[in-house]
Specification:
The chain is α/β, with parallel strands linked by helices. The protein has helices spanning about 35-40, 45-65, 75-80, 100-115, 130-140, 145-150, 155-165, 185-190, 190-205, 210-225, 230, 240-245, 250-255; strands spanning about 15-20, 25-30, 85-90, 120-125, 150-155. InterPro entries: CRAL-TRIO_dom, CRAL-TRIO_dom_sf, PI/PC_transfer.
């Protein structure tokens, strides 16, 4: 999900939206163990630019992925669509706790608590190393009690079993114990990622957002979630019109004003 920075920086900070859990919550993945601030700087990405990108990703998620309320009790009662969040700690070293990458994680955690409260349905911190308790002490105070109660910390051996209880195998990437292997990779080519690229292209090229096929695919993916027919009653199908309205001149102006979409975005493949 790297759209405001050079695509060759993708491997140094990976976050992506990918299908839904069994109840219809959008799945958000972030590989916090492989954030490499030093190499990002070499790619011309400052920590402030990276943080702005994170904010852009969150705004995109809320406007385009979490705009439709599913029928689970938590979302229906709050009239707010929540996300299922998977934070992958694989690759994190004990020395990272005092480094820039961990400070970036702390900053993102803080802004989520202040500006996006109660938007998480579940949070899984997966593939944690044996010493992760040290890192948890630095993150836990930034979370409110409700968020901490939703958070599960899982070792590598526990990860697949726990995730498959709430995510259908066909919606979970292979690396986390599922069977999904999107053509071109789940990280870059899930339908949500394609929609995000289409949005950014429409902004850069000052053209209307053409997304009917992508929205239709997302609708079909979501309809395949493990919901009973009674749970599905009363929910509206994703609206192509509403998504197109989100790409109106007002939204595009906001994106330009805060500087989240940069002209230097380019593919190096």
């Amino acid at each position: 999900m790297v759209l405001i920075v050079r695509l060759d920086a993708f491997r140094h900070y990976t976050q992506f939206l990918h299908k839904h859990d069994k109840l219809g919550h959008p799945l958000y993945f972030e590989k916090i163990g492989f954030i490499n601030i030093r190499r990002l700087k070499k790619c011309g990405v400052s920590q402030e630019t990276l943080f702005n990108h994170y904010l852009f990703a969150m705004e995109f998620t809320l406007k385009y992925a979490a705009h439709r309320i599913c029928s689970c009790k938590a979302c229906f009662a709050s009239h707010t669509q929540k996300m299922c969040i998977v934070l992958d700690a694989r690759g994190m070293g004990v020395r990272d706790v005092g480094g820039e990458a961990f400070e970036f994680i702390r900053r993102c955690t803080g802004v989520m608590q202040r500006h996006y409260p109660q938007r998480s349905f579940r949070i899984f911190i997966v593939n944690v190393p044996s010493w992760f308790g040290i890192a948890w002490k630095g993150l836990k105070p930034l979370m409110n009690e409700a968020t901490r109660a939703k958070t599960r910390i899982l070792t590598e051996n526990e990860t697949a079993g726990a995730l498959l209880k709430v995510i259908d195998a066909q919606n979970l990437p292979v690396e986390y114990g599922g069977t999904c292997a999107c053509a071109g990779g789940c990280e870059k080519n899930s339908t949500y990622q394609k929609l995000q690229r289409a949005l950014v292209d429409s902004v850069r090229e000052c053209k209307p957002l053409e997304c009917e096929d992508l929205v239709r695919t997302i609708s079909l993916e979501r309809s395949g979630c493990s919901l009973t027919s009674s749970e599905e009653e009363g929910t509206d199908s994703p609206s192509i019109g509403s998504i197109k309205r989100e790409a109106s001149s007002t939204v595009l102006d906001q994106l330009f004003r805060v500087g989240l979409v940069r002209s230097r975005w380019r593919s190096t493949s």
